[in-house]
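Hi, here's the filled form for the chain we discussed.

Project: internal
Contact: R.S.
Residues: 192
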Amino acid sequence: MKFTPRHFLTFLLLPVASMVAQDQPVSTIARMDAAAYLKPLNDQGVVALKTIAGDFNANQVAAVGKYSGQRITVVGRISDLSQGQSENKVMVVTLQDAGKTLPAVKAEFLPGCIPLDSSVQFSPDGTTANLLRRDRSGNILGESPFLSVDQTVAIKGDYKEVSAGNVVLTACKLESKERLHELSNTLNKSSE
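And the returned structure, exactly as it came back:
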């Protein structure tokens, strides 16, 4: 590969771009880099965890150009579950490969992402989340498993930013098991 002035400029701007990517509109160069270096999103906006994490690991500027402004569905493995740290976040689901060798995708679930009159209760070790159904008075009517570590899920959300090396999606929703199966088949066909 021939080293061009454009490559030199990208190399110099990479650390700066990663710091300001959250606050600045996506540059034309980032969009061009996305087209030049990364495989485009499929028509449905579905991406495997390995692909999105690999894109950000390989070329963060190009990955920002590819995913900014997109509502995407990520199919991958849950590595951690936690309650959101602010009142506008119900929970954060972290998707990451088992070896934790690639960046994580942190999916922020906002109010309205779970059924009405329900709440999410997390195990102390962050490995499971149960859905608690309540009556109008707040009394618990029932409890059912919701999510667990090592479970494969499909999460749809808006690309928000890269924070502390992790890809952050917001306004997320969990796709049904049936939809997960369809999306997994879509990904398998596109990789053939």
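Let me know if anything looks off before we file it.
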